């Protein structure tokens, strides 16, 4: 038993450190806030569909103290926002999600609002934001991608 | 009859005196630590699946459980899991790995009796009761929840 642990410990440590070392900040020019308390990105307005509404939504969502990070995009019809919730407030995840959704719905009445607390949605939206910032994403492509991510939320498979 | 009872009680007392004290507190600590480590490892696997495959937090549970049971299968086969279980006790039995171990160990043990009567018949010797009581308690809980929703409590 002891021998097994000794043999296994070195590769295990290596895997651990490699998995930790992957964390880097986004360096694609999305202006991040200077506040250390939360994680906000602002996509500049050069994208074909202006992301000003998504930026506004993110800022207003981050005013809740339970929310420590937000990513989101908007198309011409809908807003899709993913939030990261403070650890101890994850006990009320469903309630918080509902409250934030209705808040945003009141604020942006003309658009369909979807809020998710899922890590996967957060990661996907982060990537989409970075694409919006760096590439010329066409309106159609943005719609497609947004719908694809939205489908993930209700994916049961 | 009375004397028989008397000796029985005497014996119980005698046995209690001679019995080595179980280190309950130490066992609890060990179970807590190892069980927590297994769960942390499971969390690592699900985070890995979320980042690199198309799984959301909703449905990452299935592949994570499958992976954990697969790893348990290997550990059981190589004889490492029973050493871990000896050290950790309930810590290695309560997570899903304990269930996997119960199934796989029985399957390995009865392999010599053939596939049908040996492996097939004995595989769920212990796990069968887990399934039975699991399904039954799920049924009861679902019944309670349905009633509570009907009455509008939750």
UniProtKB/TrEMBL annotation, chain A:
<keyword id="KW-0732">Signal</keyword>
<protein>
    <submittedName>
        <fullName>Sporulation lipoprotein YhcN/YlaJ (Spore_YhcN_YlaJ)</fullName>
    </submittedName>
</protein>
<feature type="signal peptide">
    <location>
        <begin position="1"/>
        <end position="21"/>
    </location>
</feature>
<dbReference type="InterPro" id="IPR019076">
    <property type="entry name" value="Spore_lipoprot_YhcN/YlaJ-like"/>
</dbReference>
<keyword id="KW-0449">Lipoprotein</keyword>
<dbReference type="Pfam" id="PF09580">
    <property type="entry name" value="Spore_YhcN_YlaJ"/>
</dbReference>
UniProtKB/TrEMBL annotation, chain B:
<keyword id="KW-0472">Membrane</keyword>
<dbReference type="InterPro" id="IPR014203">
    <property type="entry name" value="Spore_V_AC"/>
</dbReference>
<keyword id="KW-1133">Transmembrane helix</keyword>
<feature type="transmembrane region" description="Helical">
    <location>
        <begin position="88"/>
        <end position="108"/>
    </location>
</feature>
<feature type="transmembrane region" description="Helical">
    <location>
        <begin position="31"/>
        <end position="52"/>
    </location>
</feature>
<dbReference type="Pfam" id="PF03862">
    <property type="entry name" value="SpoVAC_SpoVAEB"/>
</dbReference>
<feature type="transmembrane region" description="Helical">
    <location>
        <begin position="64"/>
        <end position="81"/>
    </location>
</feature>
<keyword id="KW-0812">Transmembrane</keyword>
<protein>
    <submittedName>
        <fullName>Stage V sporulation protein AC</fullName>
    </submittedName>
</protein>
<dbReference type="InterPro" id="IPR005562">
    <property type="entry name" value="SpoVA"/>
</dbReference>
<feature type="transmembrane region" description="Helical">
    <location>
        <begin position="128"/>
        <end position="148"/>
    </location>
</feature>
